[in-house]
Specification:
329 residues, three-stranded antiparallel sheet, 43% helix
Length: 329
């Protein structure tokens, strides 16, 4: 009922501030807004399933009441998965004229889609990257998907971060594809490092409570996702259904088609690997990070989308990275 009837502006509209949750819900029913999409319902169902499954794992409950209402979650690869971008769609997205014209406004416009295509990372994972997350891992240039402490939130008793991860399996190193290096990504990293700002894309906000300065849970990815969707639909006039998330499907599907083992794909995309012999694999078989990163690098090298990335010129974002620029924590 809440998902169906809760008013979309309940969090910001003054008239709802003095109302109880029940009163807001009744007001939403009276307004009779259009119902949520099927995709939205599936998303909420998955969130509820994760909540109840956590209670089940920690033995707070003996069974999960939402199981009878759930369809099986589709994987990135499979007949029911959301499809990847086609070659023609990728050519359209990264068309030299339209992409450069749109992406020249801000660094996250420029590098966000490029990193999404060549890493398969989630939009929030890319949007929340710090400069320190671009590093050499066993001699291979990589992006680290992880959580690190934000200095302005640290205290003597709590070490906090605005970065968020979907789960333990999301922690990983992703080799930077050669086309991304050739496009000048490390030159951009040098430019942003010169600003002394810790984040790779300082124009993105994670959503901050104005009174306390604390993150409000929106996440850095929302801004990047919304701007990229507007580019797809308003500038390129692609139909609804296209989103940043399809980059994950594109990379995963292509690597699968190239014969890369799903377990290796999962180490790149940050999915949990299903273990056939859990005790043995969890307790006795340890990854060799130096070997894994080489295998990942070789796998990513097989991904060759039909796009020509624009070449970054050092200093091209000096206008928005200057002393008067508005950065977010």
């Amino acid at each position: 009922d809440v998902h169906r009837w809760w008013p979309r502006n309940a969090g910001i509209h003054k008239r709802f501030r003095t109302m109880t949750d029940a009163e807001i819900l009744e007001e939403g029913k009276r307004m009779n807004n259009a119902p949520p999409t099927e995709a939205s319902i599936r998303s909420v169902s998955r969130s509820l399933a994760a909540f109840f499954n956590h209670l089940l794992r920690t033995r707070v409950i003996s069974h999960t009441p939402i199981d009878p209402y759930l369809d099986l979650k589709s994987d990135l690869i499979g007949p029911d998965a959301r499809r990847p971008f086609s070659d023609d769609e990728l050519r359209t997205i990264f068309d030299p004229a339209s992409f450069a014209s749109w992406a020249c406004k801000y660094p996250h416009y420029w590098w966000g889609p490029i990193l999404g295509l060549y890493t398969g990372a989630r939009v929030n994972e890319i949007a929340q990257l710090k400069v320190s997350d671009v590093l050499s891992h066993h001699g291979v240039p990589c992006i680290a998907i992880r959580k690190t402490v934000d200095a302005d939130l640290a205290s003597n008793t709590r070490m906090r971060s605005r970065q968020r991860l979907k789960g333990k399996s999301a922690i990983r190193f992703i080799p930077i594809a050669q086309p991304v290096l050739d496009a000048g990504f490390l030159e951009y990293v040098d430019d942003i490092r010169a600003t002394k700002h810790p984040r790779l894309f300082p124009h993105l906000s994670c959503g901050v409570n104005r009174a306390t300065g604390e993150p409000n849970g929106a996440g850095y990815g929302r801004g990047l996702s919304e701007r990229f969707s507007k580019y797809l639909h308003s500038v390129l006039e692609l139909p609804k259904g296209f989103s940043f998330h399809l980059f994950r499907h594109t990379l995963a599907t292509e690597l699968h088609n190239q014969g890369v083992k799903k377990e290796l794909v999962a180490t790149i995309t940050g999915h949990e690997i299903r273990k056939t012999v859990p005790v043995l694999e969890s307790s006795y078989l340890h990854d060799r990070p130096s070997l894994l990163v080489v295998q990942q690098q070789a796998a990513i090298a097989q991904f060759k989308p039909p796009v020509n990335l624009p070449k970054y010129v050092s200093g091209q974002f000096s206008r928005v990275l200057g002393a008067d620029a508005k950065f977010h924590p």
